[in-house]
Model the fold of this input.
Amino acid sequence: TMIDNNHDVRSRFDNKHDDEQITNVTYVVRKHYENFETIDWLKDLMRNRIRHRNLRAQRRQSWKKRFIFWFDAWSGWLCVLLVGISAGTVAGFVDIGAKWMSHWRT
Done:
């Protein structure tokens, strides 16, 4: 456990080796600025890495867990693809609609 009195930082990591799952992570950073606390990007990053490691360790147990692992790995790219297709579709409708309305005006 590490305590820094200047910034009120407490951290505890229970780390397991190789194929074992990491089960317990406590990482708290609190910096008070009047009425709110800062977003703890390191804590979010650590949770995401641990979640991904646990999914990777479990992917050989069943086909369902393998699918969940691959879906988790590619879900961000799938979202980017769908946003790009949606933006292109909307831009196409705007372009066609603008040409149609300009011809309609004349």
Observations:
- Residues 2-58 form one domain.
- Helices lie at 41-58, 63-105.
- Residues 71 and 87 are 23 Å apart (CA to CA).
